[in-house]
Amino acid sequence: EAPHHHHQQQQQPLDWELGLKKAIKKLDRQVKTLYEQVPENTLCLVLLPGADRFSGSLSGLSLVGIKGEKSISTSC
Prior knowledge:
By secondary structure, the protein is α+β, with helices and mostly antiparallel strands. It has one helix at residues 2-37; strands spanning 43-48, 51-53, 56-58, 61-66, 73-75. It has a domain at 14-51 and 60-67. It is extended, with a radius of gyration of 18 Å.
């Protein structure tokens, strides 16, 4: 029974990672759709809030840029 339990512990992070990747791809498509709709030289700001969890806190993320410029600033 112990080997099965060990396998289950290894599988859980993989499932979590796949779910996270799927959520990130969905968010990326939504942000891209909004970005394509704004005119050139528009200030674009994306804020992703952090979270407090039992395992520790996760800091948020911000992306700032002006549509049409090459660089985007990120901050955690």
